[in-house]
Amino acid sequence: MQLEANQATEARGAEHSSIYSRKNPYTAAVLMNRLLTGPASEKETRHIEVSLEGSGIQYTPGDSLGVLPENRSDMVQEVLQLLNFRGDEAVKDFYGGALQLREALTSWLVLGKMSHSTVKAWSKLADNVELAALVLPENKVQLESYLWGREFRDLLEQFPAKLEDPQQLFKILPRLAPRLYSISSSQALHPATVHMSVRIVRYESYGRERLGVCSGQLGERSPLGAALPTFIHSNQLFRLPENPDAPVIMVGPGTGLAPFRAFLEHKQAGLGRWPMWLFFGEQREQQDFLYREEMYAWLENGVMQRLDTAFSRDQQKKIYVQDRIREQSALLWEWLERGAYFYVCGDSKRMAPDVEAAVLEAIAQHSGKGPEYAAAFVADMRKQKRYLRDVY
Ligand SMILES: Cc1cc2nc3c(=O)[nH]c(=O)nc-3n(C[C@H](O)[C@H](O)[C@H](O)COP(=O)(O)OP(=O)(O)OC[C@H]3O[C@@H](n4cnc5c(N)ncnc54)[C@H](O)[C@@H]3O)c2cc1C
């Protein structure tokens, strides 16, 4: 019994303290950066491993890795030119620390997707009626649509203005925030590394190729050996069950798969017996089945008990994870009645609510007690921390 208790604590992860944090990040070296998606995929998803060697950092499945990104140097240069600055002008960061403007634009300030406040602040400098109208309270919708797909350089190009003092930029632009990535490894198998599964944000708008600040950096400017300032973002609300025999249902389409790969590795390492059922979805099986070989190996060796996949674009009618949940609703109810923990990770806007609707339907139908009972059942699961979401 003692062993069991220890295993459970280990499995859930005694929360670890570290000298490293968002304010004092650990500079981790990239050890691996490989493409998970096929050449014909519409997406680009990468498996990235970074080293924790010698850092003493510990993490638990369910945690995320925070990465402090940098703006691309070509974008920084473009902004400097548009503002008519050289880059070596002296400025002070948000805390009064001295630095040069180029560094401020690289590491401190948002140059990508703009906020309302940036456009509002800029409208006061640029003497332009069109821009002045755009920031009026009654034109919120127009402003929102103006912001979609545009970056600070687009605003500077379209509405030039003279900025006397580069320090003003700290009032105009928000602070560049770290990005979180669900950790996709278990430290029980990889003591000195942490894995991420990152989808690179890439799109074209207004005649320019755009790249997500952080995912773009991880995708294009993080070769082997590259240094990344990182920290562990602990998430105690997304943990494997304390009971090592409790069944686990995981719904993780796209990069939502990441924490569940960590869960599966944790079980593979012998830290629990949890029966595990995974729902995974993406666009095309041939191109987008992330970690396919690992998933099949876990099915074969009994780490995973069941895998249901939904590849939306492989047939005419789109099929998503929630459709697979509906197809398996009787079995799902059986698992939930047995006390299964239900985990959802990935898209917060459509996927997570659609999955919840499918779960509610399954409970209503197979319990034979209708929608009110289903709603109460899920509310109860939430209270017992058995319905857990890590959505973004
Ligand atoms: C807890 C948590 C866990 C996460 N785990 C993962 C993970 O495991 N893997 C992963 O890949 N991500 C994960 N994310 C998301 C990740 O943190 C970043 O948000 C993501 O990588 C985008 O950041 P970025 O800096 O690359 O893009 P940004 O520079 O922030 O750009 C993204 C923005 O670009 C705009 N945009 C995107 N597409 C278009 C378009 N077609 N047209 C116009 N505008 C557009 C949108 O406004 C969008 O918000 C997680 C987030 C959270 C909060």
Could you characterize the architecture of this molecule?
With 392 residues, the protein is of the alpha/beta class. The chain has 3 domains: 14-70 and 178-233, Elongation Factor Tu (Ef-tu), domain 3; 73-172, NADPH-cytochrome p450 Reductase, Chain A, domain 3 (Up-down Bundle); 248-391, Nucleotide-binding domain of ferredoxin-NADP reductase (FNR) module (Rossmann fold, 3-Layer(aba) Sandwich), CATH 3.40.50. Helices cover 37% and strands 21% of the residues. The chain has 16 helices and 15 strands. The strands form 4 sheets. The chain has a 6-stranded antiparallel sheet with strand order 6-3-10-1-2-7, with helices on one face. Strands 13-12-11-14-15 form a 5-stranded parallel sheet, sandwiched between helices. Helix 2 (73-83) runs parallel beside helix 7 and helix 14 crosses helix 15. The longest helix is centred in the last third of the chain and has 17 residues, at 351-367. The protein is globular. Bound molecules: flavin-adenine dinucleotide. Flavin-adenine dinucleotide binds next to strand 6, strand 7, strand 8 and helix 9. Flavin-adenine dinucleotide (FAD) binds next to strand 6, strand 7, strand 8 and helix 9.
